Amino acid sequence: MRWGVAGPGEIAAGFAEAMASVADGEIVAVASRSIDRAAAFGDRFGVARRYGDYADLAADPDVDVVYVATPASRHEQDTLAFLEAGKHVLCEKPFAMNAGQARRMADAARARGLFLMEAVWSRFLPAYRALEDVIGSGRIGEPLLVEADFGMRWPMQPEHRLFDPRLGGGALLDLGVYPVQLCSLVLGPVEHVVADGVIGATGVDEQVAAVLRHQGGKLGVVKAAIRTTLACTARIAGTDGSVDLPAFMHCPDAITVTTRPGGAERIDGSYEGNGLRFEIAEVHRCLGQGLAESPLMTLDESVAIASTLDAVRTQVLANATRTAPPVDAQPTRL
Ligand SMILES: NC(=O)c1ccc[n+]([C@@H]2O[C@H](COP(=O)([O-])OP(=O)(O)OC[C@H]3O[C@@H](n4cnc5c(N)ncnc54)[C@H](OP(=O)(O)O)[C@@H]3O)[C@@H](O)[C@H]2O)c1
Questions:
Q1: How many CA atoms are closer than 13 Å to the CA of 117, on its beta-carbon side?
Q2: Is the same domain home to 187 and 289?
Q3: Are residue 166 and residue 191 in the same domain, yes or no?
């Protein structure tokens, strides 16, 4: 599979590391807004064709599938451009800035019969596959409540995409998408949301908490933060037991299943190397089998997750105190 990379930033570097361990794929081209940055990425990862314009990557006839690794604010335009050029697309999370964009992306892929998937890499990791097996087997009965959070204290850097609302910054879109996707995976569609949060000095949500009521009266309790470090764990509580995901809940190396007091079973989910290789393998599997969507991360689910994030954001914006948290002179510790 001949890959192109759009946006040679931090996660694209991880993706290139992961690709090095994938037998049936290769990054053959990279695009940046700057030819120098494309060249630096090309030199670092041995990518032959470098473009200083994303449109040139779209026009490259020798690229089968493009990894969109630009900020969330560009996901819709980049994904649509590559689909229009006939490329399959793996688009980084969060899939889009809102559900309307996500729907347009899904519609475009379906109209052209091209593969498109949100790069929720968690879904393809061994621990998440084990989690799905445990839930599917009925070992913990019916899952009723999911608690999940993801938060890290980032230094305040107004120029960084995380703190820039125009680039899709904020805790909810960047980190909150992981707890929300876990709730979606385990509990299904959301039918009601209650949320609150704090908007910081740069205009992005710095911390958010939400209760999601899923169909059938199941609850998801999620938190996300970019100015304080949370436990970054998750617990799925069912009628007959529970499953714990240790930190980091989006990429755990094991899960613990408890079905009776004192009877916890640890299921190993560790892996060698860069975990992004599992989502790459899933793209290859789907394309090899002629699937335009992954059954493990469907476009309908990406649109539904974006709708949930919209509902959370609407309430956060309505409720937020809009005052910056006190300036912390202490050095940042992650
Ligand atoms: N799966 C994961 O674990 C994971 C981890 C981190 C991030 N992500 C996601 O991946 C995406 C990129 O995150 P990142 O951390 O890699 O960001 P990053 O380091 O800032 O890289 C983003 C890249 O996008 C390009 N870009 C195009 N237009 C841009 C603009 N207007 N402003 C800034 N950059 C622009 C930049 O390349 P040029 O300027 O050279 O064109 C830059 O290299 C986000 O959606 C993020 O949520 C996923």
A1: 25
A2: yes
A3: yes
